[in-house]
Amino acid sequence: MRPKITLLFLLLLTFIVPIVNSQTTRNTLVEIKEDQFLINGEPTYEGRFWKGNKIEGLLMNSRMVQGVFDDLNPETTVNWEYPDTKKWDAERNTNEFVAHMPAWKSHGLLSFTINLQGGSPFGYSQGQPWINTAFNEDGTLRGDYFNRLEKILDQADELGMVPILGLFYFGQDERLKDEKAVIHAVENAVDWILEKGYRNVLIEVNNECNVRYDHEILQPERVHELIELVKNREKDGYRLLVSTSYGGGTVPKENVVKAADFILLHGNGVKDPKNITGQVEATREVSGYSNQPIVYNEDDHFNFDQELNNFTAAVSSYASWGFFDYRMKDEGYEQGYQSVPVDWGINSDRKKGFFNLLKEITGY
């Protein structure tokens, strides 16, 4: 006779199985050992050199911050209409992002920057009347944004990729009503990641902390407080690795260098590649620097067909580099990864130039 399966047992299965799965089926773990990134215990690009430059341990990336983009202002959504449907669709945007991730990885892209408040969908902007934020004004989470984020982080975990997740963006941080809400938002976002069991996510507290933030705690003098807040939240003995970034060409301040697990630099405005080398050298001289990895996660300079460009200059300094591309005046839909609506494919000359050089450097 078959034993009876009680209703209580079935109910227990219903509640227990999803919890176990969320904690045991993750595939990708990112770690830092000295100045190298490791994925699942092995250095990235293991054993790789390119033109005499060590590539092992670097984290090549691209600025893909609009992966969960939406606009909660009905007066500005007309700006983001797809050319084929003549309407904006946040779910389509995320689904197409996820669909193209394997192609990025196949060229050696191990990381990408995504941001819960996006970035300027025009590349650069003064005013930002659109409302793009994954946080309510009190710092609680918007479920629709985090549902889209989950799709991206799940795919990254499957592919062995390491997203750099930015929490705040200037021009949108004022959507949170006060400092308490900012702190609450950080706690909620970090706890969500930890509860989901992700161990492949790096945190960038805010993009360019020295550029036009409303809340003092997001500005250079105090942003290290939020870095420490992230470091102090953990689950099952695990915490997230965290940093923040500055505007183009800026050398980070001592308070951030001492607190951060890795150092984020931007190359915007750095026209001479030799100054990229200088920026890296100056960063290593900041008091409190302790051999953390140095990562450019935003640089809008290209010239990928030339032997010396900002990408190759960063590599020669043993710094990771990140591609920042946006749709410039009169360019077509296929251009740029930051301009909304985004074509997430590798099908413009700039995109092809970056990914071809990336593939060559990383040996993928």
UniProtKB/TrEMBL annotation:
InterPro entries cross-referenced by the UniProt entry: GH (IPR017853)
SUPFAM superfamilies: (Trans)glycosidases
Protein name (record): Glycoside hydrolase family 5 domain-containing protein
Organism from which the protein derives: Algoriphagus machipongonensis
Lineage: Bacteria, Pseudomonadati, Bacteroidota, Cytophagia, Cytophagales
